[in-house]
Amino acid sequence: MENNFKSLKINFEKLPEVDFEKKSFYFLFTPFLFLVAFYVYLKKKIIPKPKYNFYFFDGISKNCREIKENAASWKALDIVYNYCKRSENIYSDFWHDLRSSQATRNRLKLAKFLIFKNIEKISRTNRQVRVISIASGSAQGVIESIAKAKEKGILVEGILIDLDPNALEHAKKLAQGMGIENQFTFLNKTASAIIEIGKEFKPNLIEMVGFLEYRPFDKAVKLVNFIYQVLEKEGVFLVSQIIPNSESFFLKEVINWPMIYRKPEKLAEILSLAGFSLNNCKFYQEPLKIHCVAECKKI
Predict the structure, then answer these.
(1) In terms of CB atoms within 10 Å, which of 112, 131, 213, 277 comes out highest?
(2) Closest C-alpha to 236, from 244, 227, 245
(3) Residue 15: helix, strand or coil by DSSP?
(4) What count of Cα atoms within 13 Å lies in the side-chain half-sphere of residue 225?
(5) How far apart are CA 119 and CA 115, in angstroms?
(6) What are residue 67's phi and psi, to 5 degrees?
(7) Do residues 288 and 99 touch, judged by C-beta distance below 8 A?
(8) How far apart are CA 205 and CA 198, in angstroms?
(9) What pLDDT score was predicted for residue 1?
(10) Residue 126, pLDDT score
(11) How many C-beta atoms lie closer than 10 Å to residue 283's C-beta?
């Protein structure tokens, strides 16, 4: 089995016609970003918790400072996702156009496309679409997709699971603003609660974007196996994974945002060991090739 995974090659699906960000020339700044990250790395050896990691990042920009202070949380992602609404200064604009920032917004756009596509498809054969978002954070992609489905007359019931009550409160306000709060249940629980919640709710669409990056391999397999167990037959699981890239050192040192980076083949291995057949999984890579999203059907 191990040898099979070593020789595994992922064939990516054609990307949908979505307005992705593709400012690839930012790759030219890679040496500069590495030098900044190395400077911060050395600085932390002298001052373990400096007030500012890099003045022209978190010193001069409130948005960047908030991202650093809330790294790996829904708050930081919310700023990255919606930066166009809170543009600050040329320094902040520069950092928010880094390839990793663009790719994160691309991941949101791709996830929204796949969520809505599968909601539409499931609705053709099911009276009701039942969606669970695991480690949902603000659940922006899920909420906006379900709001779009409502406009088309598709009935969707959703459960948002997150350990941070502030994230769920933010999600509730977002759903209220779109007039669909009554379609959701907000649960302040850990991701592993999916095994109990799912058995009762019987989801036919489960979304987990931006969470596998914080789960070690064995725990990732166990969690995805829970998901496989509770997902209804013919149901779909959407999951993302960040891929090793040239800006990971910058994110770790300057933004205090470490993650577990995996190649798409490693994501495929997790999915396979958890029970999903790779023959029923499709893989998408956003244009900057920093995030991968898998779409897995349970047969």
Answers:
(1) 131
(2) 227
(3) coil
(4) 12
(5) 6
(6) -65, -45
(7) yes
(8) 11
(9) 46
(10) 79
(11) 20
**H or E element in which residue 217 lies:** helix 217-230
Q: How far apart are CA 5 and CA 3, in angstroms?
A: 5
User: What is the per-residue burial (b if ≥16 Cβ within 10 Å, else e) of 187-202?
Assistant: beeebeebeebbeebe
Written as six digits, the tokens of 297 are: 């059907």
Other CB atoms within 10 Å distance of the CB of residue 260: 14
Q: Around Cβ 33, how many Cβ atoms within 10 Å?
A: 20
**pLDDT, position 86:** 63
CA 198 – CA 130 distance, rounded (Å): 10
Give the pLDDT of residue 3: 53
**Pair of tokens at residue 254:** 């300057």
Give the pLDDT confidence score for residue 127 in this predicted structure: 80
- Average pLDDT across each block of 10 residues of the chain; the chain has 299 residues. List them in order: 72 96 90 98 97 97 96 96 80 94 97 98 92 98 98 96 98 98 98 97 98 98 98 97 98 98 98 98 98 98
